Amino acid sequence: MLNYKVNSYLKVIFIISFISLISAYFIEYVLGHQPCNLCLIERIPYGLSMILIILNYLEKKNEHFVILLLTLIFSFSLIISFYHFGIEQGFFEESAVCGLKNASDIISKEELLRQLQEKIVSCKDVTFRIFGFSLTTFNMIINLIFILTLAKIFNNYEKFKKKG
User: What is the DSSP letter of 134?
Assistant: First the structure.
């Protein structure tokens, strides 16, 4: 692994997270590919990581803890992505998360019927691919790289802080 400071790694993670979110919104709103519910959930860790990294730059007191939190966030994201990938490949059945909109909006049987008539994107239907791979596949790869990098930084924190 390259010998950069912790700040350099966090900047790269921030930039990749930012690009991932911008790309997801571009694909959704400009190219018109509707995401499934799991796709929407998979965006959350990128937003959380950006917030944590910004907070880390504002106050450097708990950088080691922030790295641990980022590792946990991307670990959960990897689990969600793996589950989504399994649904896409037919290894797992779709769960209730895949078919629900906002359940708190359903207040009458008419509203329930209206939501049932809407086209809901299935978690197993891949509407957008890059080089034949779904965005979930790329998400798993990014998460794995982030986890391995952050775990190495966390375990060797003092050594990484001294490098320049």
Answer: E
Q: Which residues contact 108 (CB under 8 A, 6 or more apart)?
A: none
Q: From CA 54, how far away is CA 84, in angstroms rounded?
A: 29
Cα atoms in the Cβ-side hemisphere of radius 13 Å centred on 85? 15
H or E segment and range at residue 156: none
Note the CATH number of domain 6-95+105-162: 1.20.1550
Dump pLDDT digits (tens) for 120-139: 666 666 676 677 777 788 89
pLDDT at 3: 44
Domain ranges of the chain: 6-95+105-162
Rounded Cα distance, 100 and 140, in Å: 23
User: Predicted confidence band at 117 (pLDDT cuts at 50, 70, 90)?
Assistant: low
CB 39 within 8 A of CB 67: no
CB 126 within 8 A of CB 134: yes
- Taking the C-alpha atoms of residue 78 and residue 149, their distance in angstroms, rounded to an integer, is 14
